[in-house]
Amino acid sequence: MRVHRVIQGETLRDIAKQYGVSVRDIVHVNELSSQNVIVPGLGLLIPTREGFAVQSYVIQQGDTVAQIKQKFGVSDEIFQAWTGLKASQTSLPVGTRIYLPVRSASKRAIEVNGYLTPSGTTSDENILANDSDATYVSVFSYQARANGTLVPPKDSTALVTAKRYQIQPLMTVTNFDGNTFSTSLAHTLLANASLRTKFISQILSTCTSKGYAGVNVDFEHMQPADRPLYNQFILDLRDAAHARKLTVSIAMGPKTADNPNQSWMGAFDYKTLGQEVDYLMLMTYEWGWVGGPPMAIAPVNQVRSVLDYATSVIDPQKILMGLSLYGYDWPLPYVQGKTRASGISNNDAQNLAVTEQSTVNWDVASASPWYEYTSGGIEHRVWYDDPLSAAIKLSLVNEYNLRGVTLWVLGNEFPQLWYLLQDQFTVKKL
């Protein structure tokens, strides 16, 4: 595989000829909405037989474009497309981290988890069939209640389909009360020892009866003061689950240092939890969020900062790094507290750029694409992930020696990601 960023005036026929592939193949792997129309800046996955990987490099004092190009063996076009810097630049921004393609090394075996919100319909079958390479599917979610019981999702179809494709199903348990992740609900369940015991029993009996391979706990917005209670809950759950030969994993919010008093993140004791669980899912996304200002959903510089801290206190082989399968479309101007973005799959975001004939821009710091368009007299800005930004984030799996990746959320189309995973890794089946 290769990644190509469209330059002004290029056609799909030009690009296909350059790489010795067919237009049809490019359209297929990228699920493009048109065989005839593209836009400058669009990131396309090119289905060549040549494997590639991605390597980061921090620009040093005295570096020149020519030296960097020679080091990585890339052309002017590739240098500009991947870095956002002009090949003609005489001075480079010292300290800036750039990413460039290199020849593929041997493939590492990794694990891939995908979260699924099941509908109980054939849609679940179709989603898991399309994403059948996954190692795990975390079914979202069994909602906890204050009396220690659980409200189940419609998971029967998902469980049958997961078994068909040898995907290990994980039972995701949340403190979602139907409207929000409830701080008080989490405290109620964690603070009462007898209720906690009942809750664990409910989780494991359901897990066993439904045929789940393990439990995935996604408690969010907990009180910082509940940190030791959450640690004890996960420890008790793990011991009880292991007795039934079940795994225990958790989803954790992203943080770059440990401040036990920090709002909602303080409850996550990375070091202790990392020792207690079998593996964990880092939610390295949602910097750009529905109520926030327009920005990249998973900026690579922010993801790196989280991984720097996480891998300093947790065994990297327990960490699944989060990847977003979605972007956001913000109406402009953004007004804090009033503007709300609309979610959009990465594939739909790509095709919307083509439909609106919007040039796609590249943000160097976040290594993410964005564009603007106008509809009904209202300006919009869209941030999303494309094959280039995804390939860059996947390079972190090797750089940090991670266990694998976790995807939020299946059903959002991003076909290029699965091709990249197949090209760069061997995805484990357990």
UniProtKB/TrEMBL annotation:
Protein name: Glycosyl hydrolase family 18 protein
Keyword field contains DNA-binding: no
Matching SMART domains: Glyco_18 (SM00636), LysM (SM00257)
TM ranges: none
CDD domains: GH18_CFLE_spore_hydrolase, LysM
Keywords, comma-separated and alphabetical: Glycosidase, Hydrolase
Residue ranges occupied by any LysM domain in the UniProt entry: 2-46, 55-100
A Pfam family it matches: Glyco_hydro_18
